[in-house]
DNA sequence: GAGCCTCTGAGCAGATTGTCCAGCTGATAC
DNA sequence: GTATCAGCTGGACAATCTGCTCAGAGGCTC
């Protein structure tokens, strides 16, 4: 679960140039190929690396509008609401948070007008008492992990 | 910018088994290798596929606590606050949203107690007027894109 | 019909992968 | 001090995949 400096460098390298192979990585890091392979296997079975799926940009797919909605859930309806939201493709992410029956979800839509349709679909469900939505204007820090990896690797 | 059915299948396949190569993909999809290569190149230059970076799990790195903080920013201090937050490794993501000088950021921490340290560091900056934090308890829908890809591919 | 784009199926040299192995090192246990 | 162990190194091998090229076929628009 703890990662050392070499793991950190490996992750950073992998994040910067994901297409390079094990052999090229071993050259860049100055270690043997077997070492890189062993480290990668360990990081994956550790769960540190969850996968290498493609990072798809919703905007390029035609969904340039992002919003966060805070939902207030009626007591005991949590499971139903979760199941409902999981069926909506525009719900990219859903969290339950502290507070009385609150959820936070990330939405995308084709336009501001389309966002209304998405929100109607999201909140058009019995267990949801109230929803408040914040539309994203800018994204100064896109989802990132490298700084955290570097910190975790430094502390080793 | 619009993706067709084959693009959709390609993305789904890539998301499910990211380590398979171009040749294996062409076999699974029943098309020629050159087609897969051309589609992949196009998706990448389109920006639909942003990259193939490793998906790192903060929890496995020792940061099991996630929280969302809504920040109220003093007028005109936005740029400074952005720069400040970008230097905090525990800030994984930052958005500016509708509303008067509001920002939303995703934080991680080593523990609930550690979250206090992170929040102090985040809000210990002049331009931030107020902050309210919601701690994530569950994550019923982890960040996903496949359902949206399938919808976009079906509409073609 | 001409022109254009995409897909197909094939070929080639070169590089990479998965998988072994023996030897070395540093740390830990006895 | 010495035995044991895990991790790293550097090397080898066959099998596979990649990047690149090509000619031909189909479908589309003008």
Automatic annotation (TrEMBL), chains A, B:
Keyword Kinase: no
Entries under SMART domains matching the protein: HTH_ASNC (SM00344)
GO MF annotations, alphabetized: sequence-specific DNA binding
HTH asnC-type domain boundaries: 3-64
Record GO biological process: response to amino acid
Listed GO CC annotations: cytosol
SUPFAM superfamilies attached to this UniProt entry: Dimeric alpha+beta barrel, Winged helix' DNA-binding domain
Pfam families per UniProt: AsnC_trans_reg, HTH_24
Keyword Transit peptide: no
Entry-linked InterPro entries: AsnC-type_HTH_dom, Dimeric_a/b-barrel, Tscrpt_reg_AsnC-like, Tscrpt_reg_AsnC/Lrp_C, WH-like_DNA-bd_sf, WH_DNA-bd_sf
Keyword annotations of the record: DNA-binding, Transcription, Transcription regulation
Protein name per its UniProtKB record: AsnC family transcriptional regulator
Origin species: Streptomyces albiflavescens
